[in-house]
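Here is a typical protein record:
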Amino acid sequence: MSPGLAPCRYWAFISYSHADEAWAKCLHRSIEAWRVPRRLVGRPHRDGSIPHRLLPVFRDREELSTSAELGAVLNQALRESRYLIVICSPRAANSRWLQEEIRYFKSLGREDRVLALIVDGEPGPGPAQCFPAALRFKVDGQGNLLEAPVELIAADARAHADGRRDALLKLLAGMLGLGFDDLRQRERRRRLWQGLRNVAALAALMIAVVGAWGAFERYRREQALAAHIEKVYESGRKELLAGHDMRAAVYLAEAYRLGLDTPALRLMLGRAMAPLDAQLPLRIDTGGPVRRPLFSPDGTRLVAPVDVPLNTLAEAGDYVPQVDRAGIWDVASGERLAELQGLPKDPRLLRWLPDGRHLLVSGFDRGDSTYWTRADPNTGVWDSLTGQRLARLAGHAGLIGTPLDPEGRRVVLADLPQRNGAEVRHWRDARLAFRIAPDTHIRAASFSPDGQSIVTGDAQGRVRLWDARDGRTLRALPGRLPKGVTAATFCPRGTRLIAIGADGDLRVWNAASGHQELAFAADALGIIDLRFSDDGQRMLVIGRNGYKVWDLQRGLQHFDLPGALFGLATAELFDAGHSLITDQGDWWQVAGRHRQTVFEHSNARLSGLARSSDGSRLAIADWSGRIRQWKLPIHQLAEHAYAGRIIAAEWIAQSRQAVYAGDGGKLHLTAADGAHPVTVWHNGEAQVVSLAVDGDGRRLAAGDRAGQLRIWNLAQQQAVCEAASGADNLFRVAFVDAGRAVLSVAEHSADGLTETRVWNAADCSLRTTLVHACPVYELVLAPDRDSFMTACADGQTWLWDAHSLQQRLHHAPQTAALVRLGYAGNLPWLAIARQPQADAAWVDLRSGEVVDRMPVPPGDAAWEAVVRANGTWALATEAGRFYFKDGPQAEARLAGTLDDGVVGLVPLREQMLITLGYDGRVRVWDQARKQPIALIGAHENLIWDWALDPAGSALLTSGFDGALRLWNLPYERRDADAIRARVACRSGWSLHGDALQRAAADTAPACD
């Protein structure tokens, strides 16, 4: 029975139209007269045990035609009925009060207890429709009719359908929770037993034998099914932890289809289905191997260079890839708009001009060109609408960088056939604007982002800066690259110059001063390409030894992924350089080198990828010639980078915004979806160390290291009031008394004491001071904000009324140290570590009694704890071990060990737990199974603050790496059939038995 409903007095409530009263009377008599088969009596049932008879049954004696609402008697009878039986006919479909009875019964949370009996009409649409609307659609808890349809399985009493007897049995089977066939067989056996009493002994023996064998077979099948479900579930969990979302989705969808339905499975399905849901159903078939596709500036078209098919090259005895053509495709419809002919066989640079119509392509006329054997370098401009080449220029436009000026009129050409410097030409008429260093073999050149200067690198290893108006020398940069320069460019913002040597050396200079900032050997075998984050602060180096991500601001290497790469390898940086996608299909989070997703949509090896300029779409091509697209982002809701440490952060659920404190007293407010820019305002000169948002998300309280309290109006970003606490550090603030007051905990550095004060939120005037006998260590608000707790490190704990601010109780344990303070629901609890017993205890603060204990290994110490209202709890130790306990009588079990230790434990809905490690990683655990189920992501180092969305759908984290991240915690709500259909259409995998098989590239389904 649903919680909060009246006890069930009636087995069923018969709802009918007055015109069908004869049917109602007959049904009423039949149900109450029917005897439950003896072998079913006493069996467990969802409402207790099965009785001898299903009575009483309530039948409305008359249809209400004048009352404005159902009468009290009918309401009470509906609440006291286990099932609602609706007699369906065209008259019933139009009965207003029958509709009201159904809606009221469903609003009680008993939608699965509604049974239908068809006596006339048809179940389909039309004038003969027999099903009332309230029966055909879902109803919410307020009785509102929703648009979501309900799949109805009704008993049909009409002669050409089930007939009266079988229809009655179907209703009885539904009330007893039995299968119709099972109940019908029992009825037949009962009649046979009554008719064949003289042979009862033999019949009983035969039935016993058959029943025993059937039970054994059912048991064997159930055990085999349970083992299969467990195997595919475990395979899906492991694949998800490894980042293979598309594989995990196949396994987990199968477990879901077979009947497994747990909160952990729903969360894993939510993560596994994310890349499949983000994948667009449209597939572009180019007809040949694609290398390095490129979105147009407006993101509506895609240019895809297509290599000569591999079988053609094999027949010619030449295995060197070479471009045959390039198509222009509409990304929305997949239509080929144009085809570019006559491209260089080895195009190394492909750029859209600013007008979004023309394309610059630069490369070599031999498919095996290298830096040492370059032949016939040339550059051309093509019209993307007609596919015609408009210009052909001698020379190469470089491997990286910007060979075009910002207006798209001039192009700088290096590596000239005569190797006599570099040229700047107007591409439309090939007119020479000026020549640079005619006595030098310049290998690389690039315009600055503002178009004011040009950087060049030559064969002697020199890097120089030139005036882009007339070619005058501006500066020769210090230092040479010993093997010569192969590429030179500016970072996106133009503040730095980067040059690459033929031996893999890489140098970075300050563009304004010419000072060399960095010098390192990025890849001894040669660098293939460079990519930059949108803000220019991070640089991706793609070399023959793998991928590396560098912080240009601090000269630090954030990421290193070794691996042998070839000359066409590419990758993209996302999320301000915090995410990386390689053309091998791996989506990496740079922090912690965490692989979030592997794109495994086909049997063919991936050949290239492209990201739209606005970052909303990703295209991945493979060697079979197919290009698939994804909507971005896939997993993470939002990420904001800050050049410093983030000390405090708060999540505003009402407006889906995050507010955080940066260095120097700055406060930042940003939208969670990243659609709006970050707004910044100053709280003062001192560092803000604590933040709190009131219950309606309108005001912000900020405390800083100078002991200053300020309350802000978030919408206007104006200070409401401020007050000086007189302490050195106001390290904790919280709204209490329904937002009318602000609680602050301040520290006096001179004596190490703390002071807890309560301020009026309207004017920051002092309201009262809470008295403690020791320095306050922690402050925790109840979820309903009706109470709060304060505690000291020695375990002394106070419980306060949040409205009257009066002390409710004080607990002072002996020889105990505080581990964690919290609420299980709204019940206050305290976890303490007792010495020298080396265990942790859960104390109920209402009574002061120890509810449960958790042993801690010798040499270790309790560190974090989480307690739930159902009696389960989790404990983390200083050594990084954490334990789960299912209740006071259960045994504590080691769930895992995080080598770097646990920063915090965050309880997630329905027996799941989030661990925040000192390594910056965010993991989700299934507390029931005591195993990890998802690695959400990571910060580069320590996570300092976090906040969980009240609905449990997102987690906000901030850290010393200067990143504020909002992690999506999806909870799959679609049914098993919808999940199975999506997986079959988009995953490229299928399950055969317990093992996955990959669909062939030419037969991969694209059904949606």
